[in-house]
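Q&A log
Question type: sequence-to-structure
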Amino acid sequence: MKLRIIFLLLVQLSFIFCSCNKQENKKQEDFTAHQEQLKEILVTQNLNQQQRYTIINQMANNLLANKDYQGVILFLTDWVESHPDDLYNSYWLLMTAFAYLSTGAEPVAEYYFDRILNKCQDLSVKGQSIHFICLQNLIQISKNPSNRTKYFNALINRFPQNINTTEIYLRLAMEYEKDNQWDMALKTYFLFLEQPDAVTIQIPGEPDAYKKARHLVDFNNSSKDWTFESLPALEKAVKRAIRNYDWRSLDKYKAKVNFFSMSWKQDEMDANSQEVFSMRAWMRGNRIRFSEELDETSNSNEAYLRTWGWSTYVPVWYLYFRKINFPLDPDIHGTWEWAGIYMGNKI
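Response status: OK
Response body:
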């Protein structure tokens, strides 16, 4: 009895499987026949531009619906090659680029997006520029800083109404940095800072955008005469000045750009953290001391010196030393500065 039930189940499953196969085969036959009919119309009929566009677009979208990305690529690239004067070639190549993206072939997609920009006239797709779509995708997938600067500049110059110019200026400046074009980077950071929303804008992945740009531009315009060749040299000079209660030397050693004094919870770029003051008032009448060794959290780029005795209310100050990152000037890049003061014990 059990064997008979199993046999009947197998027969039913086999019937269903065969039916599905027949349906699938019929569906594929219908699809192929439909594509052939469209192709016949395209080849044999005297169609105008709009009619040809409708047929080609339908054939391409039929292939996309079947996820036949290779079929789309072969069909559209062959059409563009055979019809170089087709008004809609930029759109056919855009579909080709997206087909390559769907297969994970980003470098080839990048080639086609770039080709559209350089060799094809712009068209509007659902109210949006094809060239704008290409630039958006190129910025996402391109890994070459030189190319990326070209794409960001094109967005700014051609489509300012479609983008957040403030953010694009920042990202363009960062690409100039990566490409070691420091003069252009600084000029572009300046343009970023000139935007009315530069201070308040929230840029994904760049929480300290304004602080970084402000520091670079201001530092470039400064004398840079407070820097030290090495961390040991800076540490030695500061300790000697504290030991001798030499407030004039300490004032001289302080960075003249973006020097801060703040609690550990404040932000370096807060307005009240960068008030200019002299060390004289804090040293007079107080017994200032310092740790013999730098704080254990110090590293190759940052260092902290614990000092105390500055005031009754907040006696402990951590002097913050920082390695300078400024490739534009090899004589300054890699030197050290006394960049600020953290007031109070570390949190």
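Response note: Strands lie at 124-125, 128-129, 260-263, 289-290, 302-308, 316-323, 336-343.
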